[in-house]
Amino acid sequence: MGSSDPELLSTHENCIEYGTNLKILASNDQVKELQTILRDRNTSRSDFKFYADRLIRLVIEESLNQLPFTDCKVITPTGATYNGLKYQSGNCGVSIVRSGEAMEQGLRDCCRSIRIGKILVESDADTHEAKVVYARFPENIAQRQVLLMYPIMSTGNTVAQAVNVLKEHGVKEDCIILSNLFCTPLAVKTVMDSFPKMKILTSELHPVAPNHFGQKYFGTD
Amino acid sequence: MAAKITTFEPPSSASSDSDCAETQADVSEVFPDGELDEERSGDYYTTPASPITVPYCPRPPSAGSQKSPKARRQRTTSINKSAAKKTATESVLRTQHRTIYTAGRPPWYNLAGQQVEPFIIGICGGSASGKTSVAAKIIADLDMPWVTLLSMDSFYKVLNEKQHQLAHNNEYNFDHPDAFDFDILIETLQRLKEGRKVEVPIYNFVTHARDTQTKTMYGANVIIFEGILAFYNPKLLNMLDMKVFVDTDADIRLARRLKRDISERGRDLDGVIKQYTKMVQPAFNHYIAPLMVHADIIVPRGGENEVAIHLIVQHVHAQLQLRGFKLREELAHSYVGQPLPDTVHLLPTTPQIRGLHTFIRNKDTPRDEFIFYSKRLIRLVIEYTLSLMAFVEKVVETPQGVCYNGKRMATNKICGVSILRAGETMEQAVCDVYKDIRIGKILIQTNFSTGEPELFYLRLPKDIKDYKVILMDATVATGAAAMMAIRVLLDHDVLESNILIVSLLMAESGVHSIAYAFPKVQIVTSAIDPEVNDKFYVMPGIGNFGDRYFGTEPSEE
Prior knowledge:
The complex is a heterodimer.
Chain A: H1 9-18, E1 22-24, H2 29-39, H3 45-64, E2 69-75, E3 81-87, E4 91-97, H4 104-110, E5 115-123, E6 130-136, E7 145-149, E8 152-153, H5 157-168, E9 176-179, E10 182-183, H6 185-194, E11 199-202, E12 204-205, H7 213-218
Parallel strand pairs in A: 1-11, 4-5, 4-7, 7-9, 8-10, 9-11, 10-12
Antiparallel strand pairs in A: 2-3, 5-6
Helix pairs in contact in A: 2-3, 3-4
Chain B: E1 44-47, E2 92-94, E3 99-101, E4 119-125, H1 131-142, E5 147-151, H2 161-168, H3 182-193, E6 198-204, E7 209-217, E8 222-227, H4 234-239, E9 242-247, H5 250-264, H6 269-288, E10 297-300, H7 306-323, H8 327-332, E11 344-346, H9 351-361, H10 367-386, E12 391-397, E13 403-409, E14 414-420, H11 427-433, E15 438-446, E16 453-461, E17 468-472, E18 475-476, H12 480-491, E19 499-503, E20 505-507, H13 508-517, E21 522-525, E22 528-529, E23 531-532, E24 538-539, H14 545-550
Parallel strand pairs in B: 4-8, 4-9, 5-8, 9-10, 11-21, 14-15, 14-17, 17-19, 18-20, 19-21, 20-22
Antiparallel strand pairs in B: 1-16, 2-3, 6-7, 12-13, 15-16, 23-24
Helix pairs in contact in B: 1-7, 5-6, 9-10, 10-11
GO molecular function (chain A): GTP binding
Protein name (chain A): Uracil phosphoribosyltransferase homolog
Pfam families (chain A): UPRTase (PF14681)
């Protein structure tokens, strides 16, 4: 992305602080507005879902940029050659139930027939310890690039458990891209310390995470 | 609808192009688009697509050969009942003897986006001298669209109670210069001459007041201005490029007037004679007849005078040709190799965007994939466009109990305008990212014989001048269509700095042409290609985006 843009400076600072595996969606006023609406307690549920879907779409599009590709040439209808590029097949999505599922549609809108796995992680009400209770993946997930979807990270425990499950299924750490909307610096640190090769893409680093996301998106608040 | 018309009528008839959506009354006018009032809400107004707007044969009313005007959009407003006697078909206007094809409007501005003034013909002459039929003949013989007829009758002054009573007794002098509101008339004609949209008042001859509705006139290459005192005001006289005086014998005028007022309007003989001898005839001798000295051409016998009309039409054609030029070719060959203007906002070329371009540029991509990947790319372009709007700081409370320093868009007055057909493919994305956005449409097609873009149709939100306008076209090659659309928006008083032209792919020359003509228009695109080929397609390009998206490409032999 246009690196001379002054708006991106904060992104670069973060990258230096956390390493290049943390990527923050190029912030502009429009993205900021989406974040503002999602954080505003007075936002109606219909608006919330509408703007959440927009932000999700942007994050998913940016996540897809992290996937590997090769150059290719195509002939245009005018007979000229266009130097394009081609994405490799063999990607899949994995959503962490429940709020991660909010991002599935965004992924579907970009990749019509992508395979999507699911992980259910539950926190123990007393110990706050995250525990995986359900996981279902495409069969050959070990050979795939995995787009792990989870919109809100406040401690990073849930994501850490999910990544552990993926690794148990043979997925390489550097093949995992975490798509995230809001994340706290603490969570980034926790996750990156445990999984230094994993890529993280988020739209905002902020000490307070909008934990109401799942409830408001699905209307169970 | 014709039944609603009020029939009382002053000396000459008014008729003119256009309508506005809320104009319920008055007469219908032929119009090429066959839709019926889908936006009667008042949020939209329509502007004439190709305003051939003159009743071809208003007097006497042509009987027969007439479809119900109800099935058509209500167009012109005219107080002349006989003006309703017209036929409409999809894209042609049928008059008694000929068919006028309503082609699009060729460029009316030059390379720098500046207006070329329309040609204004003034027609003056006594009451019932045949001005309207001369105007109608000229329009029929010109055989071109985008001709507007403006009548002085729309500009009668509003009468007070006493005057109204006088008028009722045939004692108000409608033939005196004081009966006309020259201030509004001059302003209206001046704006038309500048190519701007105008709201022409509708004069109600029953109440002698202006209706609350107005008719919208826009987009004329030739304006015909007719009225009994068309040459009276020196300012008006100055604006006329050609002055025609219709000189019909007084006996004939009286005879026509008697016939019209008695048999068509049900008035009594004494009243008509009284009005004629007391006011019409003296006004003619005092005010109208002396205006003959200003005329370039005096047409005896009115509309029957084929030779005179032929001469007029020839002159107009010659004048229009002098003003015309080939816009597109000049555009395609300007500004090679200059740095991009700073109003251009190119989306960051990420791998995804290149990947999407690879899909949609590949000639072998099947249509379902083409549509799918186009839509993804369009969505990104539109999201990026919204980020260019003005934003203001805003602090909001969060459910977590802390405040969040955020931003909100500074305006909620944003509308989309798509340039048909390819621009329509982008409408869905605009609606998907901006709730309840208003969408206008402009149809511009390339004329295959000249290669020039022509304006066919437009429909814009009524108060578009207050809006930021996202103008959408899928591809911009020479920029000719985009410039025409921008010109239309400017003519509707949209601020140049409030226009964003948004497109998937642009050619470098198109970008330069737009930026040169309209330096404040923001240009947004996801790719800029270096060349335009001799068929005005971008190279390497996408091909004909609309054809590929809608599946209307010619089959390959």
